[in-house]
Amino acid sequence: MDASTLEQRIVRYGDLVPCRTAFIDAHTPGSNQKENFTIIGAGVSESPDQYVHIRETPGFNIGAAGQPPRCTNSLHTHRTAEVFFVHSGRWRFFWGEHGTDGEFIAEPGDLFNIPTGIFRGFENIGDDYGMLMAVLGGDDAGGGVIWAPHVIEAAREHGLVLAENGKLYDSKKGEQLPEGIKPMPLLTPEELKQFPVVHENAVIPDYVARYRDIEALARQAPLRVLGADGWLKDKPGFEIDFLQRGQVGLGDAYRTDRHEILMVHRGHWRVTVDGVSATLAPGDTCAVPPGSERVIEPTMSGETALFLVRNTDDPAGPTHVD
C-alpha cells in the first residue's frame, strides 16, 4: 500500500459531504436543518443526493448525523443494529411510537446501542452544532428505515412522499409518483402492536456506555465496549473497542483477517498500514483492510480516544445477548 492508497481509505472530518434531503422529514419543521453523512457503505438514505465516501461495506455501515441546536431526527426504526457515539454536542434520545416510552441525555463520547425493533429519535439539546457517529448493522443496513406513521403523514403535508420502492418524491420540485408506484403504506394498528415497549430502566444499564466510565475501565488495556464478550453484550455483526493513550500493547504491530474501522474521538493518532503512515485527527475515519499489518498509536500527550469497529461472523440482526 502506498500513501495515496491509504489516504483514499481515510475520510477526513473536514471533507464530509452532507445531504439535507436524505430522509422523509427533510421538509418537516424542526427536522429540516439536519445533515446526514454516509461515510462507509450505502447507508439507508432515501435520496439520490446522498454522497457516499467509501462504498465498500465490511459487514456494517458507518454514517453520521449533524444537527444544529433544537433540530430533531424523527422517530424511526431499523431491522438491524444502530449504535451511536456522540462526537460533539449534547443529545436527547427518545423512543417509542410517539417518543414517550423513555429518554436519556448523551454527552460527548457516550455510546448508545439502541435496542433493535423500537422507534427512536434524537434531538440536539446543546448550544452548538452537534455530530453523532453511527454504526448500522449489515451490508445493506437492513433494507432501509421504517417510519412511525405520524412522521410519514407530517412529511406529506410538507411536500415529501415516500414511495413503496423506498424512494422520496418531492412535490416542491414538481416530482410525482411514477405510474404504478404507490405511497409507502402506513403501519397498521395491528403491526404497531408488534413493536415492544421498552422503558428507561431496561435500557440505561444494558445499552448505554458513558464516556467517563469507558475511560476509567480502559486505562490499562483496550476495552471491548460492545460485543459478545463486551461490556455491552450484543452480537450485531460487529464489535466496538475503545483505545486511549497509556494502554498496554498500544502501538504494537499486528494483523487480522477482519475489517477494522478507526473512528477518532479525541486527540491525534498515527495509523501505519503495511509500513505506510498517516495521521488521523478528531472526527476522521479510516478503513483498514483485512490481512494488512497495522500499527495504531496516539501522537500526542493528553486526552486521546478512538473507537475501533471490527466485523464479526455473527449475522446482522436483533441479536441482543441477555
Automatic annotation (TrEMBL):
Where are the coiled-coil regions? none
- InterPro entries noted in UniProt: Cupin_2, RmlC-like_jellyroll, RmlC_Cupin_sf
Superkingdom of this entry's organism?
Bacteria
Query: Which stretches make up the Cupin type-2 domain?
Result: 69-134
Known Gene3D superfamilies for this protein? Jelly Rolls
Task: Fetch the Pfam families from UniProt.
Answer: Cupin_2 (PF07883)
The record's SUPFAM superfamilies line, in alphabetical order, gives:
RmlC-like cupins
Q: What is this protein called?
A: Cupin
UniProt organism field: Saccharospirillum salsuginis
Lineage of the species this protein comes from: Bacteria, Pseudomonadati, Pseudomonadota, Gammaproteobacteria, Oceanospirillales
